[in-house]
Amino acid sequence: MFVSTFEKQLDAKRRLVVPQEFRALASGPFDGVVCFPSIEADCIEGGGKALFDRYNGLIEELEFGDPLRSALEVSVLGGMARLSFDTAGRVTLPESLCDLFGLTDWVVIVGLGDRFQIWEREAFQAHRSAQRELAREGLAKMRADQRAARLGLAG
Fold it and tell me: I want to staple 108 with a disulfide (CB 3.0 to 4.6 A). Which of 64, 112, 122, 124 is the partner?
């Protein structure tokens, strides 16, 4: 699983050192990762073969011509780039993705289990604050619902 959060600096050629833990998890048919514009947030999403297989399986479940299938194909498959590791464990981020999300200097790499995200540092700080609040509220509601169910108050 991709876990933890790392701050890394892009060099002038848009190269990024991928954390060693992430490189070990990304093994697949080539020595690198796949990246594409995230569907759920303003960042780059990436992972290894397992992530590619997961999205491809989701797409394959939908009928050819289905608008959602087309949207996923364009967004994920059409936006995907294979990024190979160099000898120093770096990948070079595509200029188009860097421009899309304002990645110029410091970035944050966030592990999310079977995938990771690459954020512009300040954008991630705001996103993390919003996500923490949502998690707090959601967990409190879950606990209240569970408590009500135990007491037979759900209905």
Answer: 124
